[in-house]
Design goal:
This protein folds into two domains: about 10-180, Rossmann fold, CATH 3.40.50; about 185-500, 2-Layer Sandwich (Dihydrodipicolinate Reductase, domain 2). Helix content is about 35%, strand content about 20%. The protein contains 17 helices and 17 strands. It has helices spanning about 20-35, 55-65, 80-85, 100-110, 125-135, 160-170, 190-200, 200-205, 230-235, 235-255, 265-275, 280-285, 415, 425-435, 445-465, 480-485, 495-500, and strands spanning about 10-15, 40-50, 90-95, 115-120, 145-150, 180, 210-220, 290-295, 295-300, 300-305, 320-330, 340-345, 350-360, 380-385, 390-395, 405-415, 470. Helix 6 links the parallel strand 5 and strand 6 (about 180). Helix 10 (about 235-255) crosses helix 11 and helix 11 (about 265-275) runs parallel beside helix 15 (about 445-465). The longest helix has 21 residues, at about 445-465.
């Protein structure tokens, strides 16, 4: 099906002078313009605290885009799509907590223009901005005019704050107007998860505890905390990655087939999975989790200070830069199947992957051969980033007169088959925001269900007074993470991106 062109809309970006806008949002909109999915009836109104006029914002974007040169082509700034979009970018400055700026926006938009408000701002401003938009009638819809608000993560810092934020927002606008973003869901491989499952009986037919031993979800980052010490010390790896990114991947893996690809049908099934995640006691949470913080050492040929010595990090910080969890989704399909999740900074490589490990062959009927009685299990590896693709690990006979099995990989990379271009991952999300498709956005109940599942870990760590286990930069985390999965007779899968580089 050919995607339809987005309707006329004004995208109002709060935080227009920030890093998110210039690095991800504007390049994504340029790509949408280039593909014809948005036209000359798209206008961008940037709102920021910096003083300036329309040319001020355009100039800042010019300066940034000049340095972007994908695939050796001319800088993005000289692209026709950018020149077309540039003339439709305007700017106004003001305090997001005062009425003046909203009155100015109201005057600029009028009451009949379609508008989407993008909150590229610190989370503390989510509630106040939505309230101001509602008070000034900027979220008022008609039969011919839509008003929507897009909210970046993190959505809350725990279960209580997530519930409070949802209540605050939904007391001012309807759920159908709220688009809670998780940029992971904009990635092509993630969107393909449902197609890979539900369009291939060879996969979906095996998708249950009858055939699957366990699931691993890894989001590894090679970068350290860097200059984000203040933010990260108040957040940590669990809050930053698990209830949003990793749980969204888990939900797409574990959801039941929706009766359609309608947004609510998909969100209903994802929500059921998150609500089925086992809520541990404090003792169970401690036994099924590991947290760590990187120490000093070499990372990518450079000397890295320990996390505790990072600027703006408290000297007595107990914040984790790594977390590993063992979880269960208590449903009929997944009963007894553990989900192992891990994420961290300053690790071996940048890699986000999902590994489905199938049950072992019950009996290897290769008598009087060198083949061991236990063959390695089959695995389906879904590479989310950086080299998007899928691979299946199977066993075959080595050529020759003897019966000797060897593992091989059936490998597919998106880049080998398709031209996916230089995308940011935000293209699908922004386009869906414009056309009103909420399938890739989180609903209030799913947000709260995710926080309910991680709250026992937060509580256990707060109460036990423990400190994160140190690990070496460039490693795959603390030794206890290996013990967490090894005590179940399993091993972490070696990162797919590392295995791919060896070929």
């Amino acid at each position: 099906m050919i995607p339809k062109k987005a309707p006329p809309v004004t995208l109002v970006i709060f935080g227009a002078t920030g890093d998110l806008t210039r690095r991800l949002l504007i390049p994504a909109i340029i790509n949408l313009t280039r593909s014809g999915l948005v036209g000359d009836d798209l206008a961008i109104l940037g709102v920021g605290i910096d003083e300036g006029d329309d040319e001020f914002l355009r100039g800042r974007l010019d300066e940034f885009l000049t340095h972007l040169s994908p695939d050796g082509e001319e800088p993005t700034r000289k692209d026709d799509a950018w020149f077309s979009l540039r003339s439709r970018i305007s700017y106004m400055s003001g305090d997001f907590t005062r009425d003046d700026i909203y009155k100015a926006i109201e005057t600029r938009l009028g009451s009949t223009a379609n508008a989407a408000f993008y909150l590229a701002v610190p989370p503390v401003l989510f509630g106040p901005i939505v309230e101001k938009l509602a008070v000034h009638g900027l979220m008022q819809e008609t039969e011919t005019c839509f008003r929507r608000v897009a909210i970046e993560k993190p959505f809350g810092t725990d279960l209580a704050s997530a519930k409070a934020l949802n209540a605050r927002i939904l007391s001012n606008v309807e759920e159908t107007q709220v688009y809670r973003l998780d940029h992971f869901l904009g990635k092509e491989t993630v969107q393909n998860l449902m197609t890979a499952r539900f369009a291939n009986m060879i996969i979906e037919g095996l998708w249950s505890n009858t055939y699957i031993d366990h699931v691993q979800i890894t989001a590894a980052e090679v970068v350290d905390v860097g200059s984000r010490g203040k933010f990260y010390d108040a957040t940590g790896a669990l809050r930053d990655m698990v209830p949003n990114h990793l749980f969204q991947l888990l939900a797409m893996i574990a959801m039941e087939p929706p009766n359609s690809f309608d947004a609510e049908a998909i969100r209903n099934e994802k929500g059921k999975v998150l609500k089925a995640l086992r809520v541990y006691s404090a003792e169970e949470a401690a036994a099924n989790s590991v947290r760590g913080a990187y120490g000093s050492g070499d990372l990518g040929g450079k000397s890295l200070s320990a996390y505790g010595d990072t600027k703006d990090v408290a000297p007595d910080s107990r914040t984790e830069t790594y977390v590993a969890l063992k979880l269960y989704a208590d449903t009929w399909r997944w009963a007894g199947v553990p989900f192992y999740l891990r994420t961290g900074k300053a690790l071996t490589a940048r890699d986000t992957e999902i590994v489905i490990t199938f049950n072992k062959v019950p009996f290897a009927q290769f008598r009087e051969t060198d083949v061991t009685r236990r063959l390695p299990p089959n695995r389906l590896v879904i590479q989310v980033q950086p080299d998007e693709g899928m691979s299946m690990e199977i066993s075959i006979k080595r050529p020759g007169q003897s019966v000797e099995t060897v593992p091989v990989t059936l490998d597919f990379r998106y880049s080998d088959r398709f031209d996916i271009g230089n995308t940011t991952g935000y293209e699908s999300l922004i386009y869906d925001l414009f056309i009103g498709d909420q399938a890739l956005f989180q609903r209030a109940d799913s947000i709260e269900a995710g926080w309910a599942a991680v709250q026992p870990f937060l509580d256990a760590w707060a109460e036990d007074g423990s400190v994160p286990e140190p690990y070496a930069p460039g490693s795959m985390g603390p030794a206890s993470a290996d013990d967490l999965i090894r005590k179940d007779g399993r091993e972490w899968h070696e990162l797919g991106v590392v295995l791919h580089q060896r070929k």
